[in-house]
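Hey team,

Filing this mostly as a record. A colleague (T.K.) asked me to run one chain through the structure pipeline before their review meeting, and I want the input and output archived in the tracker in case anyone asks later how it was produced. No errors, nothing strange. Just documentation.

Input sequence:
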Amino acid sequence: MGRPLLALSLSGLEIEFCNPAREASEKRWTTVQRRRGIVRAIAGRELRWREFLFWTLLLAAFQSLEAAETRRQMMGAAETVAFLLVAIPSAGKLDGLGLEFTNWNPIGLRAAAVSLAAGLLAGGMVVMVAFRCHQTLGTERGWNLVILAVLLGPVVEEVVFRGYLLTAALQLERRVFKTKRNWPSVIGVAVIFMFCHSGRAGSTWIQPCCILLTGTLYGFTRLRLQSTVAAVLAHGCYNLALYLSYWTGISN
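Output structure:
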């Protein structure tokens, strides 16, 4: 057993030594490697664990924070932290479950600073206009609602509007109208964004105008920095500016 066998080729010029034990070992090794490859393919490409956790944690946290029970709200805060721990390092790596169309790309510190500043500046301008016109901004009380407005809400809305809708609008504009101007798509999505936020109880005329302008800002931020993450930062800082004005008594 295991003794090498001498095999001569028909040409008589080549000699091959065959070892059955070695061949069996190589066959087992090949089988193990194939199985490992299948497992890696399932875990990395078919299951899409990053994308699965992105959606699962985002929707679970959103639902928990909207609940009336304090226990569920606390759970929602923990789920929000877990979501951020998944979403931040996953920038540029989400290529399944539809997230490949959202442009969830990483940005540098300078781009992040620009996005944050744009959101805060837009929020400050809106607060000033609302103060001068004696208009309410529609901010809501509750720490859970602050997390929704500053962290999770911007993610959901920007993924939908500046992710899916803006990507579809840009492709439609380039294929149908044969143009790459981009601004019609940005404004069109901003109008849809405005109408989706209209009709709320207690809303005033200033709110749709501000939503249209900020939606346009988020769209151009997303295009300029080539990332929906930038739009999320601008959106979150805008909402934070509104809450800061509410907490300091500037607006109501």
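Quick notes for T.K.: Residues 4-17, 41-45 have pLDDT under 50 and may be disordered. Strands lie at 5-8, 15-18.
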